[in-house]
Write a structure and sequence with these properties.
With about 600 residues, this protein is an alpha+beta fold. It has three domains: about 200 residues, Phosphoenolpyruvate Carboxykinase, domain 1, CATH 3.40.449; about 270 residues, Phosphoenolpyruvate Carboxykinase, domain 3 (Alpha-Beta Complex); about 80 residues, Phosphoenolpyruvate Carboxykinase, domain 2. About 25% of the residues lie in helices and about 20% in strands. It is built from 16 helices and 31 strands. The strands form six sheets. Strands 1, 4, 5, 6, 7, 8, 9, 10 and 11 form a nine-stranded mixed beta sheet that branches. Strands 12, 13, 14, 15, 16, 17, 25, 26 and 29 form a nine-stranded mixed beta sheet that branches. A five-stranded mixed beta sheet has the order 2-3-19-24-18. Helix 2 runs antiparallel to helix 5 and helix 11 crosses helix 16. The longest helix is centred in the middle third of the chain and has 17 residues. The model has no long low-confidence stretch (mean pLDDT about 95).
């Protein structure tokens, strides 16, 4: 199986001449191919096959301890004009970076096979989807990409003779010259994850792990896609997509952007506690939205799988994630139990008495070390999620009625409120932040800004990204923009108690949001936006004190005013790229807060 795409074939020949693989293999994306490559990875020591009775058709990999996560300090956006990359990215001049990396790529695949992975981000043929081709010398990457994307012959067919695709080049940087292979080949001293949005292309070298190597993930789906979206008038966002159905059968779709450790995956697979309400998952991480003919933003999850953090995931915190992982999954840097299954911290109430740690060493609860790496991962098919939405693969996408922002704020920010305009909603997204806790190094209570949860993933100047958001209503004549809300599940009392129970009870907030979308839902105008009235949140069957609800729905005007210097300092990092409209929204908010009696 090869391609009749002239540009693709020429590029493959060019890369092969540079990297010098022993063989070139075109991936067909079949189950047989996956099984064969997985067996080869087992034979080579990369994969351990898990107990078939406990975890059918699943494997565990231990990475090199020096290759365990995304490497933001080695991630670059390479544009002709450094202003394009902005202060939110590491910049390098494109030809300079290519010269550096060509030296590393020279002969880097000797002794290995170069796999050609044609993949579609989104349902094949969807008007919202886009195609990439990744060339890699890692069978581990091929197996993960089969779960995370639609790949193989059908994608090549859709690409045709002259279709547009993103060029993705990856090597572990471990040629087999006068040395044997190792279970986890990598080159930690020479890692580069470089993006060339003007082409567009991605060049990755030295890492075999996650977002550094699965180039459809953050590299394409966010950094490159965000630059494409800006030019073409759509949105590539770090958001979950959730379908919400009320007891009468009416359904809306919501997208939500949260910084890390703010409950994003848990919300994506929510189990509502209020009778008659149903939540279904379209996506847990990335959302691409384009306008349809009626002016609605329609969204797809461009991924076909979930690539999630395992530690902390349990039947208590996220039962639907655990059930999704029942089979056909790849685990990386989790612990291996004596029964041949995986384990990680907080997975069960009681840890195993003995296990093999992610470092491949004997482990017991008395070891004083983590059994699983804190960034241990699972790769699992989205189709296995018990609450996957029936429309999750609809090529037309699902219509988005509301967008949620949120952060981890023990004070100041109420449980939920609505932005009265798209412009103010964009402003709220631009100042999305979480407070540092005692668990993090440094000062406690410092605001860490992560606008739209995109700070590490926006492929261009973030000030221009805010301007792109502001421009969206003017992109089509009949634009019907989603309502924008801000939520905070983490407000605490003065004595440190969480005031809101969270998890499945968050459906009560979603119910109010649903009602607002439908033209109902009680709300009161305040200095910061439209807040639910005291009786607007359904607390039936919930044991929560009236004074706690009052606190959750209160406006701490002084707290917001205290945040103003930090917000202005956050904006100052982007200089004159910050749109004037956002400065106006900030000044107007400050004036309203100062007017609060």
């Amino acid at each position: 199986m090869k391609s009749n795409h002239t540009e693709l074939n020429a590029w493959i020949e060019e890369v092969a001449a540079l990297c010098k693989p022993d063989a070139i293999y075109w991936c067909d994306g079949s189950q047989e191919e996956y099984d064969r490559l997985a067996a080869e990875l087992v034979a080579g020591g990369t994969f351990t096959k898990l107990n078939e009775a406990k975890r059918p058709h699943s494997h565990l990999a231990f990475s090199d301890p020096a290759d365990v996560a995304r490497v933001e300090d080695r991630t670059f956006v390479c544009t002709t004009d450094p202003r394009e990359a902005g202060p939110n990215n590491n910049w390098c001049e494109p030809e300079e970076m290519k010269a550096t990396m060509r030296k590393l790529y020279d002969g880097c695949m000797r002794g290995r096979t170069m796999y050609v992975i044609a993949f579609s981000m989104g349902p094949i043929g969807s008007p919202i989807a886009h195609i990439g081709v990744e060339l890699t010398d890692s069978a581990y990457v091929v197996c993960n990409m089969r779960i995370m994307t639609r790949m193989g012959g059908e994608v090549l067919k859709a690409l045709g003779k002259d279709g547009v695709f993103v060029k993705c080049l990856h090597s572990v940087g471990y040629p087999l010259v006068d040395r044997p292979d190792v279970p986890w080949p990598c080159n930690p001293e020479n890692r580069y994850i470089s993006h060339f949005p003007e082409e567009p292309a991605i060049w990755s070298f030295g890492s075999g792990y996650g977002g550094n190597a699965l180039l459809g993930k953050k590299c394409f789906a966010l950094r490159i896609a965000s630059t494409m979206a800006r030019k073409q008038g759509w949105m590539a966002e770090h958001m979950l997509i959730l379908g919400l159905t009320n007891p009468e059968g009416k359904k809306i779709y919501v997208a939500a952007a949260f910084p890390s450790a703010c409950g994003k995956t848990n919300l994506a697979m929510l189990q509502p506690t209020i009778p008659g309400w149903k939540a279904e998952c379209v996506g847990d991480d990335i959302c691409w939205m384009k306008f349809d003919a009626t002016g609605r933003l329609r969204a797809i999850n461009p991924e076909a799988g979930f690539f999630g953090v395992a530690p902390g995931t349990s039947m208590k915190s996220n039962p639907n994630a655990i059930l999704t992982l029942r089979a056909n999954s790849i685990f990386t840097n989790c612990a291996l139990t004596e029964e041949g299954d995986v384990w990680w911290e907080d997975m069960t109430d009681e840890p195993p008495t003995h296990a093999t740690s992610w470092r491949g060493e004997p482990w017991t609860p008395e070891s004083g070390t983590k059994a699983a790496h804190p960034n241990a991962r699972y790769t699992t098919p989205a189709s296995q999620c018990p609450v996957i939405d029936p429309a999750w693969e609809d090529p037309a996408g699902v219509p988005i009625s509301a967008i949620l922002f949120g952060g981890r704020r023990p004070g100041t920010v109420p449980l939920c409120f609505e932005a009265p305009s798209w412009e103010y909603g964009t402003f709220l997204g631009s100042i999305q932040a979480s407070e540092t806790t005692a668990a993090a190094a440094g000062s406690v209570g410092v605001l860490r800004y992560d606008p739209m949860a995109m700070l590490p993933f926006c492929g261009y100047n973030m000030g221009d990204y805010f301007a792109h958001w502001l421009s969206m209503p003017g992109r089509v004549e009949n634009a019907k923009m989603p309502l924008v809300f801000y939520v905070n599940w983490f407000r605490k009392s003065d004595d440190g108690r969480f005031l809101w129970p969270g998890f499945g009870e968050n459906a009560r907030v979603l119910k109010w949001i649903f009602e607002r979308v439908e033209g109902g839902g009680k709300a009161q105008k305040t200095a910061i936006g439209l807040l639910p009235t005291a009786d607007a949140i359904d607390t039936t069957g919930l044991s929560i004190e009236a004074e706690d609800m009052a606190e959750l729905l209160s406006v701490d005007a002084q707290g917001w005013l205290d945040d103003m210097p930090a917000i202005r300092a956050h904006y100052a990092k982007f200089g004159d790229a910050i749109p004037e409209r956002l400065q106006t929204e900030l000044n107007n908010l400050e004036a309203r807060l100062n007017a609060v009696p």
